[in-house]
Amino acid sequence: MKLSAAIAVVLIWSCLPATAQQGGAALYAQRCAQCHDSSNTDIRAPSRTALQSKSFDEVLGAITTGAMSSFAQGLSNDERAAIASLVTGKAASHASTDSAGQCAQGETGFPQPIDGPRWNGWGADLNNSRFQPAAMAGLAPDQVPRLRLKWAFGFPGMSTANAQPTVIGGLLFVGGGDRKVHALDAKTGCTRWVFPTDAPVRAAISLIPMDNGQSAIVFGDVLANVYAVNATTGALIWKSRVEDHLAARITGAPTFYSGVIYVGVSSIEEATGSRPTYQCCTFRGSVVALKAETGAQIWKSYTIPEAPHPTRTNAIGTQLFGPAGASVWSAPTIDVQRRALYVATSNSYADPATDTSDAILAFDLATGRMLWHQQATPKDSFVVACFGTDQTNCPQDRGPDHDFGQSPILVTLRDGQRVLVIGQKSGVVHALDPDHEGKILWQTRIGQGGPLGGTEWGSAADQERIYVANSDVRFLRDGSRRLNSSEGGGLFGLDLATGKIAMQVAPVACGDRPQCSPALSAAITLVPGVVFSGGVSGFLRAYATDDARLLWEIDTARDYTTVNGVPARGGAMDGPGAVVVDGMLYVNSGYAQWGGLPGNVLLAFEVGIP
To answer: Which residue in 18, 45, 124, 246 has the most C-beta neighbors within 10 A?
Structure first.
């Protein structure tokens, strides 16, 4: 679901007024309706109904300073406001909630030791396992059924909540589409400080030590900026832009190791490159190594070694370029033993397709030299235009859009065998040998796959199994672009040594629940004996890993009274997974991009008294 927040780029480039005099309705009919009124569910642009669930501030911010700002150059403030008002049917909100829900004055530092229970970054460890050991989780299987809501926090003016929180030292750090990073007290949800960012922060946040004995949080935004901010005061330490391409963004959490921050770079050129007048495509994914103290670049390595060059002209004479693509959507994985870094890449954007797209790549930690690559799906060149009426910029050698949206997981089995394991949008789970240049050990299919199919955001693994959720989102075939409430979903536990399915949960049908799908797209979270999985239905469920029995479920799609006084509601769950720390569970709810229910809430659960 890599285009989730970014796909509205299609909206902006198609809706920008040719002149200030053109009316909004005429503009929409001329430039927007082809995508947003289309009955083709493969066009991954939000429907008109989905756009109306967004706030005026969301769309205006995206046009002004967000990922779509480059496409609104030259527009007046009134023109931008007219677009936002037309699309959302709403007016600007001038209410400020920054002062609501503040912690008591005088509270400074970390409430708890930072070497105590914590979930740091995306995958909780350098291996990106998304497995929380018992001592860190503080949540036993027999306690899970007693989880109860403790507090809720609302993201003001938003219709999505898609950045996973980090919890360490008793503080919780989370970004949002509201162009702010919030530092909250993990136990109460009160606000310690708020840091404004240039653009929305979709990625998880990583806490790192600094040489002066203080701690900083590092994170990226959707304009490809990386920030380091004092963790206890919210003061900016440094900011570095790691890629100048106008379509570049950061969607994966930075990974810290031995004084260096490693960050993957992705882009939305897959969407913007669909315009027939656009010279598609020139973006290459990359991994950047930065000095933790200063943000200075140590090295930068592209996922496609060859620079883009002119290839052919399209049907209207626009010069096209390639190779391009192979974005890094997820957090890098560190292999301390081999002094290597692993990332997973997206599809190619243009002809010729590259052999490093839809692949796992290994880089040397010190130099950034590519050590090896193992491709899962060859010749997967794709842009959003391939699903549209106007396929002018669709690559001639079109692929299925089966890229990787999650981090590789590095696991050492009980017998000492090391495995690099990952799920793909194709519906296949792959196990590679990191000690023999990514040699394929096994491959197991768990879903049909597709552009919104297979395993999406993140899997989880211990020393015995990898747990993967299946999306396979499908839509009704009546041209309405409504979610199919009976197709998709399923949760699987695969034996890491053999790839055989050892545990399985059948899809949970929606019944007559509106805007619902059984699809499980959100990242999986694992604690000893329990696997947590959030669904597009809005339900978060916990299953026993031994026999797949349901331990607990909560319907998050409802209204909440929040600690910061912001009206909030839960909705579809996608993207980030649950975070379990010190007996509490934290999870975001709200993701309307593919027709599910919108939402804007961060929820915190604790174990209730029997």
So the answer is: 45
Picking from 43, 12, 15, the residue whose alpha carbon sits closest to that of residue 385 is 43
- The helix (H) or strand (E) run that includes residue 14 is helix 8-15
Q: What percent of the chain has pLDDT over 70?
A: 87
In the chain, what's the furthest Cα-to-Cα distance? 71
Radius of gyration of the chain (CA): 22
CA distances from 239 to 211, 229, 485 (A): 17, 9, 44
- Which pLDDT belongs to residue 593? 79
- Measured CA to CA, the distance from residue 210 to residue 292 in angstroms comes to 7
Rounded Cα distance between 117 and 137, Å, is 7
Separation of alpha carbons 549 and 17, rounded Å = 55
CA 393 to each of CA 268, 346, 364: distance values in angstroms, whole numbers, following the listed order: 15, 18, 35
Residues 297 and 495: their CA atoms lie apart, in Å, by 40
Confidence (pLDDT) at 273:
93
**Would you state the pLDDT for residue 9?**
42
Residues 439, 434: Cα–Cα separation, whole Å: 7
Distance CA 48, CA 101 (A): 34
- pLDDT tens digit sequence for 423-466: 999 999 999 999 999 999 999 999 999 999 999 999 999 999 99
Contact 36, 593 (CB under 8 A): no
- Distances in whole angstroms, Cα of residue 215 to Cα of each of 110, 114, 172: 10, 9, 14
Element holding 88 (H helix, E strand)? helix 77-88
Residue length of the chain: 610
For residue 58, give the nearest of 25, 100, 97, 11 by alpha carbon.
11
Distance CA 201, CA 204 (A): 8
Helical residues (DSSP H) of 269-362, grouped into ranges: 269-272
Indicate the helix (H) or strand (E) that contains 85.
helix 77-88
Angstrom CA distances, 124 to 120, 251, 581, 604, stand at 5, 17, 10, 18
Of the pLDDT bands very low, low, confident and very high (cuts 50, 70, 90), residue 85 is confident
Q: What angle do CA 487, 576, 519 make, to 5 degrees?
A: 5
Helices 56-64 and 8-15, interaxial angle, to 10°?
Answer: 70
Phi first, then psi: what are they for 61, rounded to 5°? -65, -40
Lowest-pLDDT range of 88-97, 230-239, 279-288: 88-97
The token duo for 301 is 């390595």
Block residue for tokens 């400074």:
108
Identify whether the C-beta of residue 568 lies closer than 8 Å to the C-beta of residue 101.
no
Position of tokens 């396992």? 129
280 preceded by a cis bond (ω within 30 of 0)? no
Please compute the mean of the pLDDT values over residues 30-38 and round it to a whole number: 53
**Angle (nearest 5°) at CA 454 between 557 and 497:** 115
| Beta carbons within 8 Å of 260's beta carbon, 6+ residues apart | 289, 290, 291, 292, 298, 365
Q: Which residue has the tokens 């495995």?
A: 419
Q: What angle do CA 600, 602, 604 make, to 5 degrees?
A: 155
- Sign of the alpha-carbon dihedral angle for 63, 203, 378, 494: negative
